[in-house]
């Protein structure tokens, strides 16, 4: 069989200028790791696979139409933000080939499960969890060897009814999975924005774990909606083996775990093994908790060629951090960022503005705090109640939010916060400009670029300043 796997997540709009380099930006310049994993499973089972990235195709619809002529099934990643676009694409596919099965999966399917087939009425099967093993069971169904009702972790269409298969099974042994089939996206050039590389080419991503052991109240964790979705980690040897494989072809890799450094002992072992392997690839860590800052570990990270770290800081107010159940302090934040700066890491901090209990003073303190830290970049998000987060569930229980709303701003008009949506967006834009347009920030970037002998940050800052003026 031949499968087409579609990445369409970039077909959404960023919340505001303040989130320019947030999840929307990542969706555009990151390769589709989950589809690469599913592609690897299909290839290992003897099938043909093509991945089409709608964000990077010059004529995506034309490319899809041509591929459909020789394909047997289509898989589409679905996010709640782009559900209408996916629905339109699925409709177009069925108009071209009414018999071809369409399988959907991704975050929207995990959070909305049986409803997903109503949201994408031309889809036939919805995968509600990890797809690497489920997709092979679905193939067996296509081959007449298995019934849909016997497949774990799916909903499916049976004439006019939507039915469920067996209960979802979580993959406990992540080492059992094939490494992602990265060659399926060789035709695309990831890691670029505005025709400039943000990371060292050639760029890719990887997971070393799934899930998160922490329970921040604003976070839409899969574990909040999927039973037994625990924090699972790959073995050190398995991780390093993949890094060695990546090193032969790529210049940089972003580790996109929710919390890569949550297990300090494991992190030390990984860095030791990477140092022993003498790889040259640049490592970047997207999910880093503040309270994992440890000088011995950071020295090893520097030796292992770690270049970039993203910290989830969220606020410059201790009462807000406590409200979010972050379990970190302002002093810990200062220590981690200063230590990272001393090591020469490029550092990015993410901040949430205008949360449920915040006043104007809280927002001002967060912006001031962000500017006081030696960060190389900052992301500012207006707060939103995300479907699946503890705060979202609390609002649903109090009948302030309905179960069908997946991303709800903390609007004062609805009793969810103290600001209007316009005010929250204005604060995000203000924070963005205040952080990046400081003379001290620009001078520090020039100085650090000379120290690192890497001038990408200056170009990065220039792009941001140009965007803000537009």
Fold topology:
Layout: E1 2-7, H1 23-29, H2 33-44, E2 48-53, H3 60-68, E3 73-77, H4 83-96, E4 102-105, H5 107-112, H6 116-119, E5 125-127, H7 134-142, E6 154-158, E7 161-164, E8 192-193, E9 196-197, E10 203-206, E11 209-210, E12 232-233, H8 236-247, E13 252-255, H9 264-277, E14 282-288, H10 295-303, E15 306-314, H11 318-323, H12 330-343, E16 346-353, H13 360-372, E17 377-382, E18 384-386, H14 390-397, E19 407-409, H15 421-436, H16 439-452, H17 456-469
Parallel strand pairs: 1-2, 1-3, 3-4, 4-5, 10-13, 13-14, 14-15, 15-16, 16-17
Antiparallel strand pairs: 5-6, 6-7, 8-9, 11-12, 18-19
Helix pairs in contact: 8-9, 9-10, 13-15, 15-17, 16-17
Task: Give the gist of this structure.
The chain has 470 residues and is α/β, with parallel strands linked by helices. The chain has helices at 23-29, 33-44, 60-68, 83-96, 107-112, 116-119, 134-142, 236-247, 264-277, 295-303, 318-323, 330-343, 360-372, 390-397, 421-436, 439-452, 456-469; strands at 2-7, 48-53, 73-77, 102-105, 125-127, 154-158, 161-164, 192-193, 196-197, 203-206, 209-210, 232-233, 252-255, 282-288, 306-314, 346-353, 377-382, 384-386, 407-409. The protein folds into two domains: 2-164, Response regulator (Rossmann fold, 3-Layer(aba) Sandwich); 199-436, Aldolase class I (TIM Barrel, Alpha-Beta Barrel).
């Amino acid at each position: 069989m031949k499968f087409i796997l579609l990445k369409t997540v970039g077909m959404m709009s960023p919340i505001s200028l303040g989130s320019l380099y947030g999840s929307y930006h990542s969706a555009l310049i990151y390769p589709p790791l989950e589809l690469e994993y599913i592609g690897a499973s299909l290839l290992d089972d003897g099938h043909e696979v093509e991945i089409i990235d709608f964000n990077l195709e010059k004529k995506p619809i034309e490319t899809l139409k041509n591929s459909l002529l020789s394909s047997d099934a289509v898989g589409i990643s679905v996010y709640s933000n782009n559900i209408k676009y996916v629905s339109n694409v699925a409709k177009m596919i069925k108009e071209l080939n009414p018999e071809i099965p369409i399988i959907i999966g991704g975050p929207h399917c995990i959070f909305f499960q049986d409803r997903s087939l109503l949201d994408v009425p031309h889809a036939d099967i919805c995968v509600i969890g990890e797809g690497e093993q489920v997709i092979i069971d679905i193939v067996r169904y296509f081959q007449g060897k298995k019934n849909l009702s016997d497949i774990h972790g799916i909903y499916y269409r049976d004439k006019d009814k939507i039915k469920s298969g067996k209960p979802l099974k979580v993959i406990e042994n992540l080492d059992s999975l094939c490494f992602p089939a990265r060659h399926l996206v060789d035709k695309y050039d990831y890691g670029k924005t505005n025709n400039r590389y943000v990371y060292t080419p050639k760029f890719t991503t990887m997971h070393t774990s799934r899930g998160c052991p922490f329970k921040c109240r604003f976070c839409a964790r899969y574990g909040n909606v999927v039973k037994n979705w625990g924090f699972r980690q790959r073995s050190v040897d398995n991780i390093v083996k993949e890094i060695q494989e990546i090193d032969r072809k790529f210049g940089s890799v972003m580790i996109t775990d929710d919390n890569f450094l949550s297990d300090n002992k494991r992190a030390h072992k990984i860095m030791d093994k990477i140092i022993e392997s003498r790889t040259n690839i640049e490592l970047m860590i997207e999910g880093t908790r503040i309270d994992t800052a440890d000088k011995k570990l950071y020295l090893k990270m520097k030796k292992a060629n770690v270049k970039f770290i993203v910290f989830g800081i969220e606020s410059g107010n201790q009462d807000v951090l406590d409200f979010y159940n972050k379990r970190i302090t302002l002093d810990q934040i200062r220590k981690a960022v200063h230590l990272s700066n001393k090591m020469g890491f490029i550092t990015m901090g993410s901040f949430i503005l205008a949360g449920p209990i915040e006043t104007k003073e809280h927002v001002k303190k967060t912006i001031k705090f962000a500017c006081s830290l030696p960060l190389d970049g900052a992301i500012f998000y207006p707060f939103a109640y995300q479907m699946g987060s503890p705060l979202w569930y609390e609002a649903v229980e109090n009948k302030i939010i309905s179960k069908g709303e997946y991303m709800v701003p903390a609007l004062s008009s609805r009793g969810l916060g103290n600001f209007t949506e316009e005010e929250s967006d204005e604060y995000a834009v203000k924070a963005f400009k205040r952080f990046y347009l400081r003379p001290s920030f620009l001078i520090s970037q020039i100085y650090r670029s000379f120290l690192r002998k890497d001038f990408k940050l200056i170009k990065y800052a220039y792009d941001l300043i140009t965007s803000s003026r537009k």
